[in-house]
Amino acid sequence: MSEQTLILPPYDEMKKLLESVDNNSERLHRIKNFHPILLESAGLRLTPKGVVRMLLLAIDDYIYTVGTHPLMANVMVKSIPFYLDVLIPNPELRQIAIDHFNRCN
After folding, report:
1. How far apart are CA 4 and CA 74, in angstroms?
2. Which of 4, 36, 42, 94 supports an S-S bond with 88, CB 3.0-4.6 Å?
3. Which has more pLDDT, 100 or 64?
């Protein structure tokens, strides 16, 4: 049995969705440095688990290429459920992603 897939939003739509998640003091830094990493995946077809992996890899990229302190990864990982909420509109697929994320942590 093959896993269900979803298509991430197109670039402009995904950009707006990501901006809606980051509304804290790190907002401008994340929009400038983290969101471009995520936006490379705009329009891709992924499984719900693939979306979780994409987010985790993007955090890793962000931490080690931008030079942010590695402890920041823990803070960013805690925001993954909020990203899943906006990137996966289908409740069933979103729950699969959330369950996978919870098992990974």
Report:
1. 29
2. 94
3. 100
